[in-house]
Amino acid sequence: MSTVHGRSNPSSFSQSYRSNSNQSRNTSNSTTSSSFSMSVGSGIRPSGLRPVSSLARPKSSLAKERGTRMANPRPTTSMDTRAENQEGPNNNKQAWDPEEQYSNMERMYEDVCKHYKQAMEDNVEAKEANHAYKSTLAGLEQERKELTENVISLRCELETTKFRLETAERAKTEAQRDNEEEIEDVKREHRIECENIRQAHRQDMERLKSDHRDELRELKKRLEDELEDERTQRLQAISQVSTQGALEKQRHQMDLEAKEQEIRNIGSEIERLKADLAREKTLNDDLRQNLSSAGANATTMENARQALQAKIDYLESDSKSQSEAYAMMEKRMNAALEKATECEEKLRKEEMLRRKLHNQVQELKGNIRVFCRVRPSNGDEAEGTAKFNFPESDDDPKDIEVKGPEETNSLGKVTTKTHQFSFDRVFAPSSNNAEIFEEISQLIQSALDGYNVCIFAYGQTGSGKTFTMSSEDGMIPQALRQIYSTSKELEGRGWSYTMEGSFVEVYNEELRDLLGKDGEHNTKRHEIRHDMATCETTITDVTTLALDSQEQVEGILAQAMSRRSVAATKANERSSRSHSVFILKLTGHNSITGKRCKGTLNLVDLAGSERLTHSQVEGARLKETQNINKSLSCLGDVIGALGQQQQSQQQREQQTGSGGGHIPYRNSKLTYLLQFSLGGNSKTLMFVMVAPEKKCLSETITSLKFADKVSRTRIGVARKTGGR
């Protein structure tokens, strides 16, 4: 028996059958085929067969006879003859002819036999068809029961999946709604926590965060690939199901078992991923925990939905609305992910624009700036304080007036001269270190952006240079705190920084390593080497430490300050006899854009600038003072030469050490060390420190004149170093 398509419409089948049966009955002397072995197409049955819905009993021979009479007229009877006789007398003999009646009866008998034979054949065929359809009906009934059970099971799974998806959607919506508040809260809590936890724990946190981000990116990529493969396989399976026939029905059960095994495998993978997330959960802040959990749940539900979608669409004809709901949910989730990606990309672009605008602002302010700070009076000076005037009354004073010492002219008249100076910013005695650092914090940001920055304090002994640079709230500790804080914030934008620090002093034109081993820091010889291609400076055999925490930096500063060369002079009981230079190298890398930057921050505390007549030193102190004054004089010569070179080149970009006029960097170890931090490749800030006492007035005016000379110098535009 040939196979019949399992999902043919019974009504269309019956109509086709009746059409073929009527055509067969209207054709005389035609033999109807009763074999089920001939091949038929989908939706067509052999002639003479009726569908299952009309299985009863075959038509009787009388019904067959009635159909045949429509094609063959019945034999003439006596009644017909009588009717014909009524039409005319000439037909009387023919109507009652016995031979003709006998012949008609024989023909009628043959027709009856033929019809009887045909009816018997139809009966046999009907019985065979009845038996075949009963077998088919039993198989279809069994298959219907199995499919009904599968539908019930899948409906239960569907309801569970819907509940999980709704839960994930609510969690995701709440996370998105509270996103900004949670970000601020978590950042604030994270900063407070980072100040309190120990160094070892912080290192572990950073390492685990990096591993977790890499693992999340890898997991997301792998799940997206699996989702795409699963979607492609489902589309192929749907296409095959719609085009295959009975053979696909036999393979359907095997496919269901395979998919169920696949669902179990996915469930195992989900459990493993959940375990991984639970292990990492304690090492991340609350915001990333919520976002990661929501993303993992959404991805899990999406995989489960994709695994069941093909079976649901195939088995349930009324699940179109559910499919549309899932498609809408997937669309919303994809839109949210795209929006998050767009926000991250926009944030990266805003960061690049900020860096560009920040650098332009710094260039407009000048790549070499001078700040003046007047130290508060100690209150116990016998000679009193000098008179300072700050003409500007706003919050951003830039001018200072100093009343000079009394002088007697040739006529014997005593006069005093008022000296006026103008700088980028003037800080009155009431200013504190926090206000000063607020002004230089932008230069610290430039170092993070990849520029060379040099900040040095100039002034006589006792004017407050060391207090401004190295005290507990001085420029060096606050600069490092800002660098750590900013680098933490930039981690969310893909930036990671490594910091290396070294601390040296220039004593009698020799370099000393303040972080070296005991007994070696003042005996080893060090050389300065420059890489003209990359504009980088290195010092041979100097101790360079990786700065991983603020506590470590405080310990380094304390060690360096304890080893610095100091001595008593007439000007100060504890006078610094060397120039100290704290060198901080910053290397940044953006894992998202691939960009790199490398900057250097030099924080310099210069020795006292007083003249020999003021310090009144002898012996070894005399040699120290001579070397200090020589190096400070060389510093002034270098800055002056840079200004002259820039003026002669007429705004041509300066490449330090090449082209243009000669810059006397080699005249002093200090200027040679700071070669790449003073020229056109850097941003320079000079602090001129002023003591308010009258006895220091002469040195104060000298320092202010030197600072005024520096403030009038203009050098080239700064360029990044080591960036791509």
TrEMBL record:
Q: Which GO terms describe its molecular function?
A: ATP binding; microtubule binding; minus-end-directed microtubule motor activity
* Claim: GTP-binding is one of the keywords in the record: no
Name the SUPFAM superfamilies on file. Answer: P-loop containing nucleoside triphosphate hydrolases
Recorded hits in InterPro entries, A to Z, give: Kinesin-like_fam (IPR027640), Kinesin_motor_CS (IPR019821), Kinesin_motor_dom (IPR001752), Kinesin_motor_dom_sf (IPR036961), P-loop_NTPase (IPR027417)
Using the UniProt annotation, give all residue ranges assigned to the region (Disordered). Answer: 1-98
Q: Which residues bind ATP?
A: G459, Q460, T461, G462, S463, G464, K465, T466
Going by the UniProt record, its keywords in alphabetical order are: ATP-binding, Coiled coil, Cytoplasm, Cytoskeleton, Microtubule, Motor protein, Nucleotide-binding
Q: Where is the composition biased (Low complexity)?
A: 7-39
What is the protein named?
Answer: Kinesin-like protein
Native organism? Exophiala oligosperma
